[in-house]
Amino acid sequence: MPEPVSGEVWLTDLGFAAKVRPCLVLSVAPASTERALATLIPHTTSTRQSRFDVRTGVPFLREGAFDSQSLVTVPVPRLIRRLGALSPPQLRQVEASVMQWLGIQQ
Question: Which domains occur in the chain, in start order?
Fold first, then answer.
């Protein structure tokens, strides 16, 4: 299985309650570490029109947004299949939204 990298979007099993959905990879611990984990932002088609919803308009996803308030960390084996990747400007837009949500000064 290819290793996910920051900026890629993977179809991910988020568990029973959250179901399988596309997620943007923000950070990945290498498989050589004690726990191979990925920090992700799920993509949703049920947007709330919040300032934390980041629309990217990529062709491999349905209309919706990445919700920067919904950060999740899962074991890497839950990432099922790579769907595509965001461009560097799109990734920076999502990262800026996450930083705003976390109160990190840019």
Answer: 8-102 (2.30.30.110)
Whole-angstrom distance, CA of residue 21 vs CA of residue 19: 6
Report the distance separating Cα 76 and Cα 23, nearest Å: 12
Across the chain, which has 106 residues, the per-10-residue mean pLDDT values are 88 86 90 80 86 90 92 92 96 94 84
Tokens, residue 14:
């988020």
Compute the radius of gyration of the chain from its Cα atoms.
13
- Gap between the Cα atoms of 62 and 104, Å rounded: 30
* DSSP states of the chain: -PPP-TTEEEEEE--TTT-EEEEEEEEE--TTSSS-EEEEEEEESS----TTEE----TTS-S-EEETT--EEEEGGGEEEEEEE--HHHHHHHHHHHHHHHT---
pLDDT (0 to 100) of residue 87: 96
CA 6 to chain CA centroid, Å, is: 9
